[in-house]
Amino acid sequence: xxxxxxxxxxxxxxxxxxxxxxxxxxxxxxxxxxxxxxxxxxxxxxxxxxxxxxxxxxxxxxxxxxxxxxxxxxxxxxxxxxxxxxxxxxxxxxxxxxxxxxxxxxxxxxxxxxxxxxxxxxxxxxxxxxxxxxxxxxxxxxxxxxxxxxxxxxxxxxxxxxxxxxxxxxxxxxxxxxxxxxxxxxxxxxxxxxxxxxxxxxxxxxxxxxxxxxxxxxxxxxxxxxxxxxxxxxxxxxxxxxxxxxxxxxxxxxxxxxxxxxxxxxxxxxxxxxxxxxxxxxxxxxxxxxxxxxxxxxxxxxxxxxxxxxxxxxxxxxxxxxxxxxxxxxxxxxxxxxxxxxxxxxxxxxxxxxxxxxxxxxxxxxxxxxxxxxxxxxxxxxxxxxxxxxxxx
Amino acid sequence: xxxxxxxxxxxxxxxxxxxxxxxxxxxxxxxxxxxxxxxxxxxxxxxxxxxxxxxxxxxxxxxxxxxxxxxxxxxxxxxxxxxxxxxxxxxxxxxxxxxxxxxxxxxxxxxxxxxxxxxxxxxxxxxxxxxxxxxxxxxxxxxxxxxxx
Lengths: 393, 149
Fold this sequence. Notes:
- The complex is a heterodimer.
- By secondary structure, chain A is an alpha/beta fold.
- Chain A is built from 18 helices and 8 strands.
- Chain B is an alpha/beta fold.
């Protein structure tokens, strides 16, 4: 499966000018001088793919900042992925974070005869449509909430918010009781077999239920289903949309209106200031920058302020595919949270459950209180909160 | 043919129960495999799920009696991980009762055998019910690579 010449051609690596702009903008290289995207490319080209793989290939967080800056559109993240695949095939070992629990969950999910109970959190007020060819893809949120319960993450709330928004907008959808993880983390860490097993199970599930459209609220699922599945699977003809791509046009055309935020409890924080953190997969990868901002701007009484690095230049949450997370990743997270704090916002809003987890993890593991403890919230949760009073009336 | 059960036994109370069972000549199926760990707080949800990923039908966490941990932290870590793993197994549809936490008094071999047989009976009940699920173990060389302690 691994053919270095193919990988080199596909990722345009030969066009690398050795200019080092990728390394200048790389958030990992800033804190870890040993990690150098330019040098990795040059060394692999010089050795023509032979020789031992550098340990450093696992440090890349796939934030795509390098490709954003590269003059010749060299696909460094895809190249790293291919190198990881090769390294794994040669017996390299991945240092899994969280004891490898996310990966083990994904591998179990990939087994054919699994029958999950993944919808036990579904509230009764959410209306599903039977006989509908549009599915809402929940992703791993139910698993994240169990695995990261220590951090107090509630990523399922984001899914609930997204479903309530769709209900309010009268977009029909159904849920798949046995959908699998999209497999992005396995793909990024070079575990092609695991990724393909999950992808095939999902395709089977979609075709069994006659699904033609998929809506997701997780940017990772969105990008994987939209861009990676067609690359690796034959006959993939499903239309994939992100929830913000559906809600934002409805708001702009006046078909859906968001109310004002009713702060939970007695403490009314007015005026409420939020800052939006662009997830890498939604922003740089999928170029969805304006829609989430449009949704936030339409919530009454909400002031949106931008961080120093935003949109294409947004700093990553320091995520890695649940592997090789260390001091460098924590530094990146700390920097991002400091940027959020510097805006004076009360809340950091993001659209990705993984960003939530990683940033909350940085806040939890903070030593000497040197990390900004800003509240972190999902955009769909926030937007759905502004819906609630209308629903009651 | 008994279902495959993996026992994570702590080096102190848990292991002493297994040794006593052997000394007393008590029988339990050969499909029960034991992994000795220095303390049950070494075991986390990732290891428990990996056991299931590689084809275990059930997992037992065998540790010291409540309040009698050889180290100071006692069972708070393992109870947290145990609850998480049970929730994950439930969501995965593998059934949470395939995982048990047995905190037995030291040298209680009989109790260990009874608990293991109870778990095996439970696994058999689950697998003959409507939630039946055959396990597809991953190849052995993967286990060597990934389950290195």
